[in-house]
Amino acid sequence: MFFQNILGGSDHCILIYVRERHNFMSLPLVVVLFAAAGIIWYVVMIFNGLIAIRSDVDKAWSNIDVSLKQRHDELPKLLDVCKGYMEFERDTLQKVTQARNMYQQAASIDQKAQADQGLTSALRGFFAVAENYPDLKANSNFMQLEKRITDLESEIADRREFYNDAVNTLNIRIQQMPDTFVASFMNLSPRAMYKVEESDKADIPMTFAAAR
């Protein structure tokens, strides 16, 4: 009986020791699991954030593209109205037509941005020259088209600003640590800003062809 009590007590101590050792060994494992879960959660948050910013950039460009197409579709109507009045301004009309054709051939964002700058410049020159034709300025169709295109120009400018803000945010994020590692995994690269040349900001001189 005495030895049985000793053996029984010994087994109880061993059981307690095993349990304590198991709990001691489980603690680091729990810490590692929590740390791993935290890292995964953080990476997922970065991933989702970059996706959201990329979507903002794509959406901003899509909005610009819609306005560019709408302006592009209005130009043939404008040219048709003006041909009867500005028959001696063939060079001015030709510049608008060429700029429109350049936009039609543009495929990438950079090409469309460059074509937009050329078309904007051509239209500014066109409307400046049109000031010399009061009958044209009084034409109701011309007034409607001029207002429509002018409104689209303002809309494009506003959307261009939003696009550049989104691009700037994306470019900063993908260069910051640790976002740059996730961005590399997503194959994200810096986007080009939609810049306006200084020449396009300058006033257009109002030069006119001599009427015959």
Number of domains: 1
Oligomer: single chain
Straight-line N-to-C gap? 134 Å
Major sheet size, sense and barrel closure: none
Fraction in helix: over 70%
Order of helices and strands: HHHHHHH
- Structural class by helix and strand composition: mainly alpha
CATH superfamily: LemA-like domain
Q: How many β strands by DSSP? A: 0
Shape: rod-shaped
Mean pLDDT, to the nearest integer, reads 80
CATH class: Mainly Alpha
Rg (CA only): 34 Å
CATH topology group = de novo design (two linked rop proteins)
Gross CATH architecture: Up-down Bundle
Stretches with pLDDT under 50, minimum 5 residues: 1-9, 199-212
Chain-wise SSE layout:
Layout: H1 2-83, H2 90-105, H3 109-130, H4 134-137, H5 140-173, H6 179-185, H7 198-201
Describe the structure.
- There is one protein chain.
- The protein is an all-alpha fold and 212 residues long.
- It has one domain: de novo design (two linked rop proteins) (Up-down Bundle), CATH 1.20.1440.
- Helices cover 80% and strands 0% of the residues.
- It contains seven helices and no strands.
- The longest helix has 82 residues.
